[in-house]
Amino acid sequence: MRPENVEELVEIIAEAAASGRKLEIVGGGTKAEIGAPSEAEGLDMRLLTGVIDYDPAELVLTAGAGTPLADIEALVASKGQMLAFEPHGAAGSTIGGVAAAGVSGSRRLSRGGARDHLLGFKAVSGRGEAFVGGAKVVKNVTGYDLPKVAAGSWGRLFALTEVTLKVLPAPETTITLAAAGLDAAAAVALMSKALGSQADVAAAALAGGVTALRLEGFGPSVSARRNLLQAMAPLQVMSEHEALIFWSGLHSPWPDAPVLWRLSLPASRAARVVEAGLGPSMMDWAGSQVWLACEDAEAVRGAAIKAGGHAMLVRAPEAVRRVVPALHPQPPGVAALEARVRRAFDPMGVFETGRFRDAD
pTM of the predicted model, to two decimals? Predict the structure, then answer.
């Protein structure tokens, strides 16, 4: 089903709620292999597309949820601006899908994640009711902060039809400083020291034996901060090409690995997880995000819990996805609260497709 407007979407969802049918919200389909396979009917949102409002002076953009991410990034780049949370996705990714999945890149470390840049949205609930959350202003203090709920909701609460995002000026100058050969503990120590300095590090990561620190801003400022960091450690400046390969490689690690996990951890404990030797790993967000290729689900989730974090299964064969939940299992109290939130927006369970094993 491909609704062409909000009215059609309302009708489709209301009919599904009345008949007990399940609907799986689909954007570009680039993350379809996250979660268990579903037999629910697909609800293709890509016809709800196009930039609705963009005022570069106000640093705010509103677009249909089905608008390709690439189109939005090209538009804001033409005005010398950017989506500062550095979203990323395979070809065909939509801005609604990015928001619903809470996708944030390496700059999340300094600029915040998708939830911090989603100012407002329009959506249709599982009741088949259109509603509005947030506002088209940078400062909004009225009502509940529904955009925070929408970001990372994975289409389990409502169908996004329109999103309003904060945009920021793109940096004039960007450089990446790198140190090779550091183990995980030494890399975390260096990244932590750099973040605690006045260097205003935009991104920090460890991949392929290389610890990288990204600096952004006006040329003279970047140069001064580079000197500050190089006085702290033997860091070399990467070429633009090397830096592009490094940072883009953190968006989709090891495409041939059959099983891939994304761990969210306290940065101070990331090294012990990486050095446990469960499999190939990369660290982003100065260690707060760890990518790990490992087929032992129990070991990965056990290590994440021991470190005070959680682990999300982002890639696996279908047989594994049928039995291993994609989202980290929550304690009973938190799980019950999440279920109540889902029921508030979707009382008939229209969007509970089994993909995230919500009924388990």
Answer: 0.92
